[in-house]
Amino acid sequence: MSKLARKKSAIPLPTESSLKPRKSPFIWVTWLTKLLAGEDQCEWATWFKSHHRFDKLSGDGGFDQSKWQMDHAELIASTKEDLIGSEYVVTVENQNGFSFRGQKATLSGKPDLIAVREDENLIIDTKTGAPRLSHDLQVMIYMWAVPLATPRFRGMQFDGMVVYKDTSRRIKASRIDAKFVDRVTSLIKQVAAAECPAKAPSFGECRFCPIPSVHCPERIEVSEANMDCVTNLF
Ligand code: SF4
Asked: What predicted TM-score, i.e. pTM, was given to this entire model?
């Protein structure tokens, strides 16, 4: 047997036995944002992740994780430098992690940067891809949750910012109104419920989804767009 074949066979495949129920529902902010924005439709995926621990697939759809990590780290570092140059006190990623425990679920997040200055407080997330509504919503959930869930920021009001490589977008604190909070908390309650929502399998979502087919037999592995359908109508 070649070295490569030996290495491959050593990687355990996900099994039913790798599935462990969580003691109570746990939700990362990033699991909610695409559903809120309507960019994803499979609510079952978020429900399943919030209720279970399991061996995840990389679910990368061809995504280059190491390049993303380096580009993201570089963007955080340059944004941090700009903020310090503008006299903000800045904290980064792991320093900003929060765990917001409700009766139905725990909501966790880790904003890339939090910048505090006498006249202004900012929560910033940096993104290496194209702008999306879900990026704004991620920062908006942080703007709502951080002052409630992090003792050192308790009661403070934050504006938000999404920083891309060549541009950035500001989000006013006033966007965090009762309607927004209601939408977020309703989705959290839906995801935390014991009853599972419907699945919405599609190649576009399944290829990025970390849930293996042993737990989701409806998983779609092949795009219908790659299957030849021939017509003489045009
Ligand atoms: S594999 Fe597809 S259908 Fe299954 S949970 Fe993930 S996105 Fe939904």
From this structure: 0.89
